[in-house]
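To whoever picks this up:

The nightly regression suite flagged Succinate--CoA ligase [ADP-forming] subunit alpha as changed. Nothing in the input moved, so I suspect the structure step. Input below, exactly as stored in the fixture:
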Amino acid sequence: MAIFLTKDSKVIVQGMTGATGMKHTKLMLADGTNIVGGVNPRKAGTEVDFDGTSVPVFGSVAEAMEKTGADVTVVFVPPAFAKAAVVEAIDAEIPLAVVITEGIAVHDSAAFWAYAGSKGNKTRIIGPNCPGLITPGQSNAGIIPGDITKPGRIGLVSKSGTLTYQMMYELRDIGFSSAVGIGGDPVIGTTHIDALAAFEADPETELIVMIGEIGGDAEERAADFIKANVTKPVVGYVAGFTAPEGKTMGHAGAIVSGSSGTAQAKKEALEAAGVKVGKTPSETARLARAALGA
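Regenerated output under the current build:
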């Protein structure tokens, strides 16, 4: 099983013909992702060859969906044009839009997030500023390295791309049902809670690892959700125990003001919900192993 992405997912890439889009389309194909097209209005009607796999380019998301049955789009469009790309995906009602682009203005992210809601949330947005998601052995939509883990029984949801990769590597012998990088911007689409609910409903996910970071109250809200709705064991890690107060750290959303949003406050909220929280990624991996008896 998996959440949000399976071997049957038909993936298109907005921005496929750019340098970043080309690089990661090639890697996604190598991981077995069923990529059925790219989107670039200026190159519509052409094809791009990726080591013998020919991928057609369409003029719009709607055209790509009509011609291929695509149900996932991965967005590699530069920040200035990303809002328009996501709005196009929402208008086409594609079920899943994975927005990899970093540096999108918060106002733009808020606008397309609100626009998705006004359209009935028919399009699930993951990101922006995220590594995407992977269901090992089935499909990879984004930039997560496909060779660092295997299919297994752990579900992972993380704000941080780098920590996603590290946790997958630390627990590679057990493997993952799916790993979802939700991004660290102040405004994102899919949240920890959305992923926790999906992993709770997935019969093959036995344990959930949740990675948060300083700033905001997403982890505290996730703790409340876990306490009320999650029956599976959850292990957590919060990045930023040594971060200085009042300073933005890497991710635009990782800023602490006063006592709210600190790693310690988040750790305490999660532990009160029964979540075991590691002080380092490696300690968190050990806690996951112990919870699974592995």
